[in-house]
Amino acid sequence: MHPSDSDRPSPNGRATPDDDDVIIRATGVTVSFGEKTILDNLDLDVRRGEILGFVGPSGAGKSVLLRTILGLNPKQAGTIEILGTDYERANDAERLAVERRWGVLFQHGALFSSLTVLENIQVPMREYLDLSPGLMEELARLKIDLVGLAPDAADKFPSELSGGMIKRAALARALALDPDIVFLDEPTSGLDPIGAADFDQLIMTLRDTLGLTVYMVTHDLDSLFQACDRIAVLGERKVLVEGPLSMMLEFDHPWVHSYFRGKRARTIVQPTQTANAPVGAA
Ligand SMILES: Nc1ncnc2c1ncn2[C@@H]1O[C@H](COP(=O)(O)OP(=O)(O)OP(=O)(O)O)[C@@H](O)[C@H]1O
Ligand SMILES: [Mg+2]
Predict the structure, then answer these.
(1) Most buried by CB count within 10 Å: which residue of 24, 75, 171, 191?
(2) Domain 22-101+179-268 sits in CATH 3.40.50.2000
(3) Domain ABC transporter spans what residues (predicted)?
(4) d(CA 176, ligand 1 centre) in Å
(5) Rounded Cα–Cα distance for residues 229 and 218 (Å)
(6) How do the domains of the chain map onto residue ranges?
């Protein structure tokens, strides 16, 4: 299922408040560290079944927002509803229920270095599921296969893997609990263009086959143009615009303009990807 954009006329790309497809809704989110305000009255919607590309200058607060959505970072104001639950106000049982439905690939420290790939994938299973060791091992091996790693990757330590294999292993761990949503923070950084394109293809295939919703922080223009249904841009401490690529190409803001219409972008953007042709939207 791909979200349709044509029935959502809101000027900044937000869905209507009663939209059933919204799986994450951040409203008026403010996050500060001491005197420094990183996010100020930020709004963002993520829709069920989409690949959302989250983009913005380095240091703008993309990872901070991700950690805030996951409840790992306190906010000073605003609400975040994820899968219908306000995580901050939820009780322990409700939080646990939500945590079991998401998987995360963090920007740094994707895997525990002292554990093998198989053991890494089993970490969330041990934490959240009550399964026998044999069943956990079987499930972990299935995840290894799902992300396109060879079976012998299971017993390797992260130091024995290439960058691309680490990303895949980290994705396998993010998929350990069969989540509804996966959060990926810069999943293709450090990969060569072919490895990155393969990873994007894997994400699209998983979204299509597992019905995942994907929240992907990225600087990778190829990913944004080829894999993402919608894009949200962080700037000036809030989401400046969210919508299909066509909306980014039209949006009148210096950073957005130079990012999506700059020299690097022009070498990637296809002639068909002009104002009326949203990428990835069916
Ligand atoms: N725990 C923290 N305490 C204080 N400041 C923090 C903390 N975490 C992040 N920051 C600051 O918040 C700002 C945003 O950081 P963040 O890591 O979210 O940037 P980013 O948009 O993910 O950048 P990049 O694209 O380089 O990953 C930075 O100035 C950073 O120093
Ligand atoms: Mg970051």
Answers:
(1) 171
(2) no
(3) 24-261
(4) 27
(5) 14
(6) 22-101+179-268
